[in-house]
């Protein structure tokens, strides 16, 4: 089976093979610091959203906006520097 780019070998394109011989693309490994900060962000999000829900369970739209803010923070962490 040939790769899509015939000029570069599979290792150069960050590809690995399944046991059947098919190619699969792999994601670059994240540094340990990034994984730790992502886990802490998830914990902080859970605590803040839970507390806000406990304070005012009828504020559904505001809770949604709060969750959206955390999603934006997570996406901003993924951007290359």
How would you sum up this structure, described in words?
With 81 residues, the protein is mainly alpha-helical. It folds into two domains: 1-27, no CATH class; 31-78. The protein is 53% helix and 7% strand. It contains two helices and two strands. It has helices spanning 32-55, 60-78; strands at 15-17, 23-25. It has a two-stranded antiparallel sheet with strand order 1-2. The radius of gyration is 20 Å and the shape is elongated. The relative contact order is 0.09. The model has no long low-confidence stretch (mean pLDDT 78).
Q: Output the structural class.
A: mainly alpha
Extended strand count? 2
In what range is the share of β-strand residues? 5-15%
**Unreliable residue stretches:** none
Order of helices and strands: EEHH
Structural domains: how many? 2
| Averaged pLDDT | 78
Number of helices: 2
Question: Sheet with the most strands?
Answer: 2 strands, antiparallel
> How large is the radius of gyration?
20 Å
**Residue share in helices?**
40-55%
Shape: elongated
**Physical arrangement of strands within the biggest beta sheet:** 1-2
CA(first)-CA(last) distance:
36 Å
Features of this protein?
two-stranded antiparallel sheet, 2 domains, 2 strands, 2 helices, 53% helix, 81 residues, mainly alpha
Write the layout of secondary structure elements.
Elements: E1 15-17, E2 23-25, H1 32-55, H2 60-78
Antiparallel strand pairs: 1-2
């Amino acid at each position: 089976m040939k790769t899509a780019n015939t000029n570069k070998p599979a290792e150069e394109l960050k590809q690995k093979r399944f046991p059947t011989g098919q190619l699969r693309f792999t994601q670059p490994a994240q540094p340990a610091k990034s994984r730790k900060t992502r886990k802490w962000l998830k914990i902080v999000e859970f605590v803040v959203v839970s507390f806000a829900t406990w304070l005012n369970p009828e504020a559904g739209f505001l809770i949604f906006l709060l969750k959206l803010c955390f999603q934006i923070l997570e996406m901003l962490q993924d951007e290359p520097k």
